[in-house]
Amino acid sequence: MSDVIIDVYNLNKQYMKQTALNNVSFQIKQGMICGLIGPNGAGKTTIMKSLGGLILPTSGQINIYGETTQEGLSRARSRMSFMIETPYAKEKMSARENLEKQRLQKGIPDKNRVEEVLETVGLSDTGKKYVKNFSLGMRQRLGIANALLGKPEIMVMDEPINGLDPEGIVEIREMLLKLNREQHITIIISSHILSELSLLCTDYIFINHGQILQSLTAEELKQKCREYYHIHTDNDALALAILQEQCHVTKYDIDEDGSIKLYEYLEDLRWISSTLYNNGVIPVELSMNKANLEQYYMDMVGEEYNVEYNESIKIPNKKR
Amino acid sequence: MWNIMKALRYQIKRDNYSIIILILAFLIPVMSLLLDDSGVELSEMTGSMYVSGYVGEMYAFVLIAIVLLTTRITGWDYNDKTINYEIMTGHSKKEVFGARAILSILANILVYGIMMVLPMIVFTIMNGWGKSLLLKNAVIRYILMIFPIFRITCIFVLLTVIVANCYIALVIGYALLEGTIIFAMIMEEMLDKTFTIQFAATNMEKMLSFPSYKTQFIDGKDVMVFKSAVSGSLSGGTIIASLIFGMAALTIGNIYFKQHDM
Prior knowledge:
Largest sheet of chain B: 2 strands, antiparallel
Shape of chain B: globular
Low-confidence stretches of chain B: none
Low-confidence stretches of chain A: 303-320
Mean pLDDT of chain A: 85
Structural class of chain B: mainly alpha
CATH class of the largest domain in chain A: Alpha Beta
Strand content of chain A: 25-35%
CATH architecture of the largest domain in chain A: 3-Layer(aba) Sandwich
Distance between the termini of chain B: 19 Å
Oligomer: heterodimer
Radius of gyration of chain B: 20 Å
């Protein structure tokens, strides 16, 4: 496809006996804001480092703007910017000096560019203050300023909002959305603050143990995360038959344990439960759920999760 | 690569550590002259007297400066990972490595110039060249000195790239340097023979030491005239060994850097 600008195919990275990436394949299209989601050690940073040329894959192919060779990828990287791990900076230099060094290194002729990006991230008043005296949030801003310095077409950002205060998080989110909207910058971003990612991303890649679990668009995620009744009874098969026959339900899923996810009649919980009850089916659990990105992620990586978003209605077992 | 060198130069100019080394490189010859008790009046010292009498003692300081500067220029950006930005910007690893190697070589030649060449020029301007050494031979020796500086710099660039930490590289590097000097001295002692170990740091000392001299009466004064001609084995061995070892270190360093994850 012509609008695919990054194509990663069967990427593997092995450290001694440990597999960091296992046949990772994905595509990034122009204009995407793609969230890389996974627990610590899942392989997110390894993917980003591979894109940045910091680590050499054991096997597989990375294609950026049609370039696949080492030299070609280096050329392609000049159109990208990266912020990986904690922002790297010289501790005994000011923000301005750090950025000026990067300006020289990137070969940016415009000397005013440093001031512009400092202004953009709100660090223009830091003067000669050494980076070693910066808060984590200020360091993050410096990292973002550095990423913006070269006017990139693709930004790869690892935990860019980590350590920012709520106001800062909103500012950075708005800034990234603006860059994406107005300058069509493609963004690959990872964060543990999934609620933030859900406000940003157009696409998601879920990763765990070095493998891609799922890639989906925000629209697809929205579909998967829509509201539903979770119905678990003493006889789920009979319950489904009753719902189909008497309530004419058509929009539902069956869970692995046989329980039912009902996507319609969401306003009629009482009617659904009484229909089942009147037909001799005892509901064990009848709850209304609205999954969000966090919940979806936790379900996917298979960890225990306290479903605080679940407005659960527990119906006790009725003694026959 | 030019852009990386410009950025590194910008960084070095703001690095107190590097600036202190350069200031010390200037102060050490000055201090050694001021503290000298050989009875030579500074106001009468000629360029050739300085070269024959003082430069040989200065090599140890040049070596230390080389270790300090090379590990700093090559390895500082490893410590805070800012070197990663250069790769992520799209510079090839060859350029990232090459820029550090070239800048280290240039910086070390600069330090060599400050510590050894500058005082000679100053005394020559003040009191003339003098009769202690033939100017031609001194110039040849000074030029030859660049080769072991190149070799040692390349070896420390390699070491720093492997260790990936400027401070650890500094400690290991200094130990290695002293090791080669002690090894060369032991070998000479054991074999009861003065020979030039081209790959040892003592090679530099031999290049600027003038053990053979005679006293001549010139222009109404007794003048120590040193045997300053460089032997073919010393010059040839120095050039060949330095180029081979230097290039080998750079090649290995480049390959290692290319294949190593950051």
